[in-house]
């Protein structure tokens, strides 16, 4: 991928953290390609994840960015896979401006051959929060298939009624995803009935290694060279956390005075560490007293009054 200028005039340099939208003009299929390298490293370095947790976390992270590719929104899209064990939580989030974060929790280390369907009562939720309107949309997907890509295909088929194909891949340095969606035929259009099958067959020839390593241009032209590939300006993706002292204060305030006081250690302060970015927030007795006495009037804190 070469450096290029986006419509807003920003130079985007060669990077392995990007979101690339494209159109297969001949087949009338739209697509998104996502790859994460540095941001995935920043996510996995925050905790000592076993390999059986790392792989699904990487794919969930790639999917969170992939799912933002074709929607217009201002806010964040998050994916949560919860179960009663052993993998209790997979969480990944991508904001409209391409900031990703994620984490996983587990009880007993899932075995190397662990499959998502082996989890106890697993449930997948995709949530889109619109920061400007405050609206929230949530789609639930039953975990009836161990392949995360298949679960996200079902999510799109339910929520948008659009035939969708998704491929996800991950290794210890990168994670990536490719999504194809059949555009609805406009009235009067000649429908190429075979096109969707054709691109699906081409997609099946893509290897995980190609998805993780080839440049966007090489990958799309190699795979779909007969389908008239049109590439849109790529968007950079990066690791980013939305935590702040105000949000942590709001969380402490919502716990109530007694529980917040319980978190105070011998040195007279409570320290809260953000699980996404490891930033530490320290609140001493005076901070806490002020928080509960004044109600902490920070505008970001919904519980303050
Ligand atoms: Zn954070």
Characterize the structure shown.
With 305 residues, the chain is an alpha+beta fold. It folds into two domains: 4-184 and 194-239, Hsp33 domain (3-Layer(bab) Sandwich), CATH 3.55.30.10; 245-294, Alpha-Beta Complex (CBS domain Like). The protein contains nine helices and 16 strands. The protein has helices spanning 38-44, 51-68, 148-159, 195-204, 208-213, 216-224, 245-255, 257-262, 285-294; strands at residues 4-5, 11-12, 18-24, 29-36, 75-82, 87-95, 99-106, 123-130, 136-142, 164-170, 175-182, 229-231, 235-236, 238-239, 269-273, 280-284. The strands form four sheets. Strands 3, 4, 10, 11, 12 and 13 form a six-stranded antiparallel beta sheet that branches. It has a six-stranded mixed beta sheet with strand order 9-8-5-6-7-14, covered by helices on one side. It has a two-stranded antiparallel sheet with strand order 1-2. The longest helix has 18 residues, at 51-68. The structure holds zinc ion. Zinc ion is lined by residues 241, 243, 274, 276-277, 279.
Number of helices: 9
The CATH architecture designation of the largest domain is 3-Layer(bab) Sandwich
Per DSSP, what share of the residues sits in E-state strands of 2 or more residues?
25-35%
Low-confidence stretches: 8-13, 297-305
Radius of gyration: 22 Å
Mean of residue pLDDT values: 89
CATH superfamily (homologous) name of the largest domain: Hsp33 domain
From the helix content, strand content and strand pairing, which structural class follows? alpha+beta
Number of strands: 16
Distance between the termini: 51 Å
Secondary-structure element order, as H and E?
Answer: EEEEHHEEEEEHEEHHHEEEHHEEH
What is the total number of structural domains?
2
């Amino acid at each position: 991928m070469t450096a290029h200028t986006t419509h807003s005039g920003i130079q985007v340099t060669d990077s392995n953290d990007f979101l690339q939208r494209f159109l297969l003009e001949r087949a009338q299929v739209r697509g998104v390609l996502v790859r994460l390298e540095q941001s995935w490293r920043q996510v996995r370095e925050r905790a000592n994840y076993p390999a059986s947790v790392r792989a699904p976390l990487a794919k969930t992270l790639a999917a969170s960015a992939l799912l933002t590719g074709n929607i217009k929104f201002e806010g964040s899209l998050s994916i949560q896979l919860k179960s009663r064990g052993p993998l209790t939580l997979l969480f990944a989030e991508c904001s409209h401006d391409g900031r990703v974060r994620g984490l996983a929790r587990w009880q007993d280390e899932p075995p190397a051959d662990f499959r998502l369907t082996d989890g106890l009562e697993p449930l997948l939720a995709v949530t889109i929060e619109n920061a400007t309107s405050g609206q929230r949309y949530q789609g639930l997907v039953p975990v009836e298939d161990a392949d995360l890509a298949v679960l996200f295909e079902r999510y799109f088929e339910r929520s948008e009624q659009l035939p969708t194909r998704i491929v996800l891949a991950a290794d210890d340095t990168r994670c990536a995803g490719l999504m194809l969606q059949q555009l609805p035929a406009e009235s009067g259009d000649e429908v190429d009935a075979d096109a969707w099958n054709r691109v699906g067959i081409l997609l099946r020839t893509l290897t995980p290694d190609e998805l993780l390593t080839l440049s966007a241009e090489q990958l799309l032209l190699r795979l779909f060279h007969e389908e008239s590939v049109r590439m849109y300006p790529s968007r950079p993706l990066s690791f980013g956390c939305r935590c702040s002292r105000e949000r942590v204060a709001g969380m402490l305030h919502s716990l109530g005075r007694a529980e917040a006081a319980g978190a105070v250690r011998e040195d007279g302060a409570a320290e809260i560490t953000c699980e996404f970015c490891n930033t530490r927030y320290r609140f001493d007795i005076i901070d806490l007293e002020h928080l509960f006495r004044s109600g902490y009037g920070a505008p970001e804190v919904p519980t303050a009054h």
